[in-house]
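User: Some background: our group keeps a shared notebook of sequences we're curious about, and every so often someone picks one and asks for a predicted structure to add to the entry. Today it's my turn. The entry only has the sequence so far, pasted here. Could you supply the structure so I can complete it?
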Amino acid sequence: MITAIWRPDMQSLYKGVDPQKVAEEIMGIGESATPRQIVDRARDEKSELHKCFEWDNEKAALAYRLQQARTVVHVLVIQEDKPKVDEPPIRFFVEPERGKGYKPTHIVFRNDDEYQQLLRQALSELHSFKQKYARLTELQEIFDLIA
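Assistant: Of course. Here's the predicted structure to add to the notebook entry:
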């Protein structure tokens, strides 16, 4: 049997919620589970999943709008005068320090302290990616490049 636990940085968010029961309830939905199916299962007040959601509609609406605001910021990109072929777009806003707000990319790139903070954040995200996909041996060459 495989045991479920909360990721260490998320334990406080789901304090008092049994991760094993949550995992079993999600697996009980079927071979795969969509977010809609998970929410529908969580509506049952007796389920462990129920504890993972905000059921106050006013609070939930605000949380949803905050997520929409994050999405708006993340999908804005810079239109270059002469875009280079096959180059990904540059985000218009970045968050050089989590929780401190979004700033225009071109301003962060000119401020050495903020640029270094953004670089540290990028490296942290690369390490998270490496941990998340560590079992995919086909990516080992890429993982080796991540110090």
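Suggested note for the entry: The mean pLDDT is 92. The CA atoms of residues 98 and 121 lie 8 Å apart.
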